[in-house]
Amino acid sequence: MKLKSVALLLLSALSTSLSAAPINKQDIQFIGPLGQASTIKPYNTAHQQTIIANLVPSLSGSEKAVSMLGVDAKWQPLSQLNALTMGGLQAMKMEFSVNRFVQGELVLDGIEKAHIFVNGERHSDKMSSTLNLPTGDHQVIIIAEQVADWKKVSVAFNGKTDHDRLLFTDKTTKALSAKQLFDAPVVSAVSVSPDAEHYVTTQKHYQANRGNQALTQTTVFNDDDKVIFTLEGVNAGSLAWRQDGEQLVFSQHGQLKTLDLATLTSRVIAEDLKGASEFAYFNDTSLIFSWSKSPAKDTSLVKHYQGLEDRWSYARTNTQIYLLDIKSGMIQALTEGKQSHTLEDHDAKSNRILTSRAVQDYAAPPHMLTELVEFNLTQGTETVLGQYRTFNEAKYGAKGIYAVAGPDFKNGLGRAVEKDQLTNNYDGQLYWLDQQGAQAKALSKAFNPAIGSINVLSNGDVIAKVTDEDRQQLYLYDVSKDRYTRLKTGLDVVERFSIADNRKPALLVTGTQASAPQQLKQVNIYKNRARTLWDSAPLAYRNSEIAKLEEFNFTNSQGTEIKGRVYLPHNLDKSKQYPALIYYYGGTSPVSRAFTGRYPFNLWAANGYVVYVLQPTGATGFGQRFSAQHVNAWGEQTADDIIKGTKAFLTEYSYVDKNRLGNLGASYGGFMTMLLTTKTDMFSASISHAGISNITSYWGQGWWGYLYSGEASKHSFPWNNAKLYSQHSPVFNADKVTTPLLLLHGDADVNVPVGESHTMYTALKLLGQDVELIEIKGADHQIFARDRRFQWWDTMLAYFDKHLKDQPQWWQHLYGK
After folding, report:
1. For 28-172, CATH number?
2. Superfamily per CATH, domain 542-815
3. What is the largest CA-CA distance in the chain?
4. Above pLDDT 70, what percent of the chain?
5. CA–CA distance, 31 with 9 (Å, rounded to integer)
6. pLDDT (tens digit per residue) in 458-481
């Protein structure tokens, strides 16, 4: 990277209060006039702010020239500007890097009316602006309304300390940013017609002036990828197609409508269907759907619990299945009762529907019971096909029913582990049942990926979405050959998909790779090839610096290979020493290879960290023997894997500083972080998000704590295995903690209640340890809202910068100490 100039901020090496250092005019780009010359400036109007703000997107890009109101203007260095004055508006742009958190004051001189934008967002309408800049590349745009003499215009930066510097370079690439990862356009829902002649996508993105509100657009395309219709306020994932592909139904503004694809005309078929969802064509003339009714608001002074499920806010909502006649609007109930029914599948030819319903039964792990029920609509009868402790979903298939459930389904039919080993029923398996539910066959015992969901093709074959090690993939199960074939989507993580199955089966798929952002693809199922329809990379990540990815595996103490991957900072210099972050799974699912997400590994690498992600024992997707080690372990083998894996990582990556290691995880991974602080001092700083500190209180108070513990602590309870519940709980070993620990938690978390972090915080405070507790207000178990997500991401990086880079300024800026 060629260095052109550096904005040095020191007047004296000993100075602690620094004067503003002028920025070289060669490093400031100028453009103007913008549009036609006019004596009426934005400040003379009632719409000044909007007029100015609307210019920023056009000025933020990499284009060398812009055209506004028929006037062409080119960017040029401010140092080359000869004009003293000119009409219209003018703008300046500065692009620079900072290699650490930088603070200071941007000061303008010679401009009478200016507007300062930093990274596309309005910062100030005055002659100065306070900058607080995290590591990375930044852009400042200054729009000037009135300048008497451009020769007298200058821009200076007053750094707070001697390390607060702006580095101006001529590099053509940009460091990946948090704003890119969250705001970039993505396809959030897809749907393809049964004949594959049309498809619908919902695309969303965020922008600063809309806050937490996503901007969405749902579009109907033909098979030539041409836009033929837009559906305002509709999600592509919730619409339904008629079997011939010539009509679809959708809900819009409280009305249920049909859209005729030949004429592009729509009509209202029903209204006032509050609580209705999951519409599907039962046949060409009617729709089947779920309809929920919530109880009236409880105004009593007490709540009488009728079971463990009553802790769930939706527990007393009743959901039943209905049929709607499209022509007349007539609605007919198909199920009834106090138990809610979930529609699993329907078969119009035989006039049957398949539903499931929960039975309150805590007798055995995971302390729930599901009934699979078939309703014969012609005869008006219902038949319970089976009762199961483990059950995910069921679909009609050729001469029977496919079911997805854990290995213990039908008395352990799917078990592939030793008789004395408990299984992990989060490791989904595929089964076939006869039409009466009596006879069953396991179809995936020798198939290591964990099956999450299925779709059945018209020929009886199955498309399964699976966890395949650290990838989310689609597999075709060929019934006649009893064989699984991975579909070649070209994606590491399949996010959403929709199937066309009228003629030649095809898929519409969205997803990412570990080092590539989202794409939309069409996949020919039996030819097993894909073509790209849409790619977010050129839209939002052009010239972005993406971390280099390397695979890194090691063998644990049991002789099992533990898979992992390492993200390397851009322009890595192996002669230097780098801090590193170690991340591991939460729950029992492996850490996927998604390009971004709640834990943005590519962003951490962009901030100068080597990132090691490993998949310790207990995760699904690696085979039943591997996942079974999660049961009744609560971190025992997992902790050993993380410690040994980190040591192997340090040996392999000699440029990682062993004295600057951070580790973090969420949920069960947050529990693992707390547990590791009681077992090792090899980490210099640790972060636990929504972690469990006391297995007993989580089991008893988390909304789903008893269900999860029914697998993770199968057959173990505080009264028969007190050692597991106490000695594996981090808080019972808090006196062994010496590592600085940050506890992060949403204050509205119902999965892992915030008290879990409070318990550990209390213990460590009383023990005089270095511990911080940050609650994200209004957040549940996951952090979704844009403003909270950025605060959360900043908090994690600022904490590690403080402890692993000896740079506390960002943390101090956020939290004052």
Report:
1. 2.60.120
2. Alpha/Beta hydrolase fold, catalytic domain (3.40.50.1820)
3. 92
4. 98
5. 27
6. 999 999 999 999 999 999 999 999
- Dihedral Cα 172, 178, 180, 184, nearest 10 deg: 170
The answer to whether the beta carbons of residues 374 and 382 sit under 8 Å apart is yes
Task: List, edge to edge, every strand of the sheet that includes 610-614.
Answer: 548-551, 564-568, 610-614, 578-583, 656-666, 685-689, 741-746, 771-776
Domain parsing of the chain, residue ranges: 28-172, 273-295+315-389, 542-815
CA-to-CA distance for 389 and 425, rounded, in angstroms? 10
Write out pLDDT tens, residues 51-62. Answer: 999 999 999 998
- Inter-axis angle of helices 636-652 and 668-677, to 10 degrees? 70
- For residue 415, how far is the Cα from the chain centroid? 32
Please report, as a single letter, which amino acid is at residue 664.
L
Structure-token match 């395949």, residue found:
468
User: Is the Cα dihedral 121, 122, 127, 132 positive or negative?
Assistant: negative
For the stretch 613-666, pLDDT in tens is 999 999 999 999 999 999 999 999 999 999 999 999 999 999 999 999 999 999
* pLDDT bracket for residue 20 (50, 70, 90): low
For residue range 355-402, what is the model confidence (pLDDT) as tens digits?
999 999 999 999 999 999 999 999 999 999 999 999 999 999 978 999
Tally the C-alpha atoms within 13 A of residue 387's C-alpha that lie toward its C-beta. 8
Torsion angles phi and psi, residue 646, rounded to 5: -65, -40
Contact of 441 with 401, CB cutoff 8 Å: no
Cα–Cα distance for residue pair 180/44, rounded to 1 Å: 35
User: Reduced to 3 states, what is the DSSP secondary structure of residue 740?
Assistant: coil
Give the long-range contacts of residues 700-708, CB within 8 A, separation 24 or more.
701/753, 701/755, 702/750, 702/751, 702/752, 702/753, 703/311, 703/312, 703/750, 703/751, 704/751, 705/752, 706/308, 706/366, 706/367, 707/366, 707/367, 707/368, 708/366, 708/587
Partnered with residue 527 across adjacent β-strands are none
For residue 250, CA distances in Å to 85, 210, 347, 555 come to 57, 26, 21, 52
Say how far apart CA 28 and CA 154 lie, in whole Å: 10
8 A C-beta contact, residue 771 and residue 740: yes
In order, the DSSP letters of 70-108 are TEEEE-EEGGG---S--SSEEEEEEEEEESS-EEEEEEE
Structure tokens at 783: 């952090």
On the question of pLDDT at 109 being above 70, the answer is yes
Strands (DSSP E) contained in 206-306 are: 215-222, 227-230, 240-241, 247-252, 255-260, 265-271, 276-281, 286-293
Q: Average of pLDDT values for 261-266?
A: 96
H helix or E strand, kind and range, residue 815:
helix 809-815
What is the DSSP secondary-structure string of 136-205? EEEEEEEEEEE-S-GGG-EEEEEESSTT--EEEE--S-EE--HHHHHHS-EEEEEEE-TTSSEEEEEEEE
SS (HEC) of 742-778: EEEEECCCCCCCCHHHHHHHHHHHHCCCCEEEEEECC
